[in-house]
């Protein structure tokens, strides 16, 4: 698979003396949704940090669109075309919804196109149009997730990385978020999502990886993984390691 | 900071102070004056709030930037004869640049260091800036004449002058510009986003280094303009004017709630009014006392500021201490005994009185360092007001000996007890605070001690000081000769050092370190934090109190400026130089910083500058100190 948009190649990362990833390798092919599954402390969220340059791996590299991201700062990586929806949304609580969404276009200087994109994205999330002047911190969890996704889209990313996009949401909102991820993907944006809830993630993903205490233990097409009895075992193992 | 310390904000004396004026007119004047001063504080506090917002740092160098602003203005007005608007622009640009340089050189390299490190770096920067100004422009105050017209508009018994209007205009104008910047510009949005969530802002592509630099530049430009306005208002500037002003800005910001820009403005106006009315009622010399008492009250009662909805403990940006992980250098027992014996035997070989006196003085300062290393190093409560303990001990012992007729030999340990009790009681309200808040509270306590000494004339003799303090004597024989000046402090130091070493190796020492490392965990294991912090401050107070008492009896004269705030900074530098928490390190730090400059006859005026530079270099390159932290 040479046409990977994002590739992690034998990444070893550490928090101080503690090793988090052991030769982590994975790929996100262009135009696909790829999910990384794993329990607590399996190193899923840390892989987001590695991709975004918030944590520098000790060895191995992250390659985006054929270019290694080694040595780049987070803002530089974002400028290359990676948008992010961080864990538990991380909105700018006292800024308005409009300000939050437009912060996603911070790297862009094409004011006209930004304004057009803003309208287009509000069409995608009509609820946010009603609430555009409200402080983001006052929205419900599901609405906040919409803002986070809208913010990520405003940078016109080629890849969106999402950390547990369904966590803490009501079932109704979970379905809506999953639909939205598929909508975004159909518009040509590749998606890399980290999830604890395997059955949900595999519903919409094309491919999946299972991470257990920093190592990939299973990978394959989402449909095949969904049928794999080992999935459950991997989870239990991951949970124990926490 | 030295001679002119504390003069920055004195009102021009306007004849006798009016107490309880009966008409409304003077009160209107006090209100106008309070609002004008409040506007000046606001220019400082807003910058401090912005900086705290994006970098969670209380910038102790801010007052020095303000001083630099005043001097740039002075150069523009008196040397270059520039018109006033050009002067303002030059001051803002010069200080903005200085702010950006401070951020780049002093703080960015410490991004991943423990949180207290940048705070200490700003203290070091402040010392360096103040001292450089003193060397460049001399410590003497200079006049900064205003070119403004002298008319005043009378309003119902009070009056407003052109300068008052200018200050109000600059204050309101700056607030408006800042609001527009934060609300309507892309960079302003980035500043707010970074303050709210640094990581998320980075993930939107915000270059947080640029945001930091911008914020430091804006804050420093406002601070510099504030210094210029103050210089014009009082028609005097001096190199030490920044210290008190910076503290006032911090107080104003805390009143409004740290990091809260509108709160900082409101807090500043409130502080200005409190001071103005306070002076009207009690007199000018109490001016600074109001601010520091207000600070302690705020920290204790509403640590989130007056305008926070919830009266909860401050959020947690500031825990952790300046403990760099390191392996301390452990001296073998025979080496410790050998060094002690060598030190004790020194006067037998060397008889130059000057040398012995200098080293004796170093041992006295080592007592202060020993005391500070216990609270700052072992317990992790970085005290910035430690010189206050020296002052309490010195005054207690002198007054006991002079006024109560207590023999000096007894007065010294009694003074230790007084310093232990009073020091602990004064810091007690700060026990529930953490990190930077402890530093601010102790700094305020140190200032309060000095101000009480200055104002409680019936007990302390006020600004005149205490003269004719009797020397230490045993069996009628005064211990004043060269050897005794050396031996007495050394003997006391060795005794306390031995005691403190034993204490640190005991169960108590482990408990104190546990509080430093994680007070929540320590509490969950049943450690009563207040009792242990109290014990540590009491022991520290006793040691420093005895040290101060000995100083008083050797110096024979003390006043409220014998133990100024820079002594606290010096003690901190000693302790960091030796290695926080390290007993031998404290002694070494004192010997190096007090002894060496004297012995090499380094020009006295460079000494504080050297301390500041040493502090900066240590924080950057060897935070664990020479002997390592314990």
Automatic annotation (TrEMBL), chain A:
One annotated GO molecular function is:
branched-chain amino acid transmembrane transporter activity
Gene Ontology process terms (BP): L-amino acid transport
- Signal sequence interval, chain numbering: none
Give the superkingdom in one word.
Bacteria
Q: Which UniProt keywords apply?
A: Amino-acid transport, ATP-binding, Nucleotide-binding, Transport
**What InterPro entries would the database entry show?**
AAA+_ATPase, ABC_branched_ATPase_LivF/BraG, ABC_transporter-like_ATP-bd, ABC_transporter-like_CS, BCAA_Transport_ATP-bd_LivF, P-loop_NTPase
Report the PROSITE patterns cross-referenced here. ABC_TRANSPORTER_1, ABC_TRANSPORTER_2
Similarity-based family:
Belongs to the ABC transporter superfamily.
What is the designated name of this protein?
ABC transporter ATP-binding protein
* Organism of this sequence: Azospirillum lipoferum
């Amino acid at each position: 698979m040479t046409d990977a948009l994002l590739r992690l190649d034998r990444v070893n990362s550490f928090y101080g003396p503690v090793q988090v990833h052991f030769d982590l390798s994975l790929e996100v092919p262009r135009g696909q949704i790829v999910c990384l599954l794993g329990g607590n402390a399996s190193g899923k969220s840390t892989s987001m940090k590695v991709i975004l340059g918030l944590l520098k791996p000790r060895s191995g590299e992250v390659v985006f669109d054929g270019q290694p991201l080694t040595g780049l700062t987070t803002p530089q990586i974002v400028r290359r075309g990676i948008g992010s929806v961080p864990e538990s949304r991380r909105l700018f609580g006292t800024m308005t919804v409009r300000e939050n969404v437009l912060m996603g276009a911070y790297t862009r200087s094409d004011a006209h196109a930004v304004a057009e994109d803003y309208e287009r994205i509000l069409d995608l999330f009509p609820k946010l149009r009603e609430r555009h002047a409200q402080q983001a911190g006052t929205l419900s969890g599901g609405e906040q997730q919409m803002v986070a996704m809208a913010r990520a889209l405003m940078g016109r990313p080629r890849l969106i990385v999402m950390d547990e996009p369904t966590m803490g949401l009501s079932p109704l909102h979970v379905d809506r978020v999953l639909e939205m991820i598929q909508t975004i993907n159909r518009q040509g944006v590749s998606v890399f999502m980290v999830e604890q809830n395997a059955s949900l993630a595999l519903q919409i993903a094309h491919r999946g990886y299972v991470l257990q205490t920093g190592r990939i233990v299973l990978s394959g097409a989402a449909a095949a993984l969904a049928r794999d009895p080992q999935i459950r075992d991997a989870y239990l193992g991951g949970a124990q390691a926490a | 900071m030295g001679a002119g310390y504390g003069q920055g904000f004195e009102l021009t004396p306007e004849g006798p102070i009016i107490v309880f004026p009966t008409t409304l007119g003077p009160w209107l004047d006090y209100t106008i004056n309070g609002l004008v001063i409040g506007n000046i504080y606001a220019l400082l506090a807003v910058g401090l709030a912005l900086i705290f917002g994006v970098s969670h740092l209380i910038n102790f160098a801010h007052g020095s930037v303000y001083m630099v602003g005043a001097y740039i203005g002075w150069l523009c007005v008196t040397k270059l004869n520039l018109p006033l608007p050009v002067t303002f622009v030059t001051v803002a640009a010069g200080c903005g640049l200085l702010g950006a340089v401070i951020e780049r050189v002093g703080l960015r390299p410490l991004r991943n260091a423990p949180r207290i490190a940048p705070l200490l770096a700003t203290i070091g920067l402040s010392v360096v800036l103040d001292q450089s100004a003193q060397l460049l422009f001399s410590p003497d105050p200079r006049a900064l004449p205003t070119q403004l017209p002298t008319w005043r508009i009378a309003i119902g018994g009070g009056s407003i002058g052109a300068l008052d209007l200018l200050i109000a205009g600059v204050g309101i104008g700056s607030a408006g510009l800042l609001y527009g910047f934060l609300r309507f510009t892309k960079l302003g949005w980035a500043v707010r986003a970074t303050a709210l969530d640094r990581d998320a802002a980075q993930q939107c592509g915000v270059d947080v280094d640029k945001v930091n630099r911008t914020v430091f530049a804006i804050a420093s430009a406002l601070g510099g303009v504030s210094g210029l306005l103050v210089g014009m208002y009082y028609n005097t500037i001096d190199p030490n004017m920044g210290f008190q002003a910076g503290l006032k800005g911090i107080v104003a910001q805390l009143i409004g709630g740290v990091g809260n820009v509108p709160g900082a403005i409101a807090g500043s106006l409130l502080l200005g009014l409190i001071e103005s009315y306070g002076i009207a009622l009690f007199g000018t010399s109490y001016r600074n006392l109001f601010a520091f008492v207000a600070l302690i009250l705020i920290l204790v009662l509403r640590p989130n500021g007056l305008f926070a909805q919830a009266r909860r403990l401050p959020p947690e940006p500031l825990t952790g201490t300046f403990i760099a992980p390191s392996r301390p250098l452990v001296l073998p027992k025979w080496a410790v005994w050998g060094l002690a014996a060598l030190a004790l035997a020194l006067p037998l070989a060397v008889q130059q009185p000057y040398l012995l006196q200098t080293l004796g003085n170093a041992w006295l300062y080592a007592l202060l360092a020993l005391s500070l290393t216990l609270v700052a190093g072992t317990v992790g409560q970085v005290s910035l007001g430690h010189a206050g303990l020296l002052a309490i001990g010195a005054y207690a012992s002198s007054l006991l000996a002079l006024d109560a007729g207590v023999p000096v030999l007894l007065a010294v340990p009694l003074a230790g007890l007084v310093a232990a009790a009073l020091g602990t009681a004064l810091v007690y309200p700060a026990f529930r605070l953490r990190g930077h808040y402890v530093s601010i509270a102790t700094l305020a306590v140190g200032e309060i001690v000095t101000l009480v000494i200055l104002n409680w004339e019936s007990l302390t003799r006020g600004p005149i000081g205490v003269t004719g303090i009797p020397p230490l004597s045993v069996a009628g024989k005064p211990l004043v000769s060269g050897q005794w000046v050396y031996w007495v402090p050394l003997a006391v130091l060795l005794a306390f050092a031995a005691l403190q070493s034993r204490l640190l190796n005991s169960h108590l020492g482990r408990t104190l370190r546990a509080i430093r490392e994680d007070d929540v965990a320590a509490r969950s294991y049943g450690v009563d934090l207040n009792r242990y912090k109290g014990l540590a401050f009491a022991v520290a107070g006793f040691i420093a109190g005895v040290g101060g008492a000995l100083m008083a009896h050797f110096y024979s004269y003390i006043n409220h400026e014998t133990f100024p705030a820079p002594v606290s900074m010096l003690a901190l530098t000693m302790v960091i130089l030796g290695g926080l928490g390290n007993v031998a390190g404290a002694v070494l730090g004192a010997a190096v910083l007090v002894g060496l400059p004297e012995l090499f006859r380094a020009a006295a005026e460079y000494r504080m500058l050297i301390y500041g530079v040493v502090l900066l270099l240590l924080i950057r390159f060897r935070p664990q100190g020479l002997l390592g932290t314990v």
